[in-house]
Amino acid sequence: MIYPVKTPAIFRKLFPSLIWHKGRDQKIVYLTFDDGPSPEITDQVVEILDEHQVKACFFLIGDKIQKYPETYNLLLQKGHQIGNHTFHHLNGWRTSTDKYVDNFNQCADLIDSHLFRPPYGRIKSSQIKALQDQDIIMWDVLSGDFDPKLSGQDCLNNLTENVENGSIIVMHDSEKAKEKVLYVLPKFIVWAKEQGYSFGLL
Question: Which residues are part of the catalytic machinery?
Answer without folding.
Answer: 34, 172
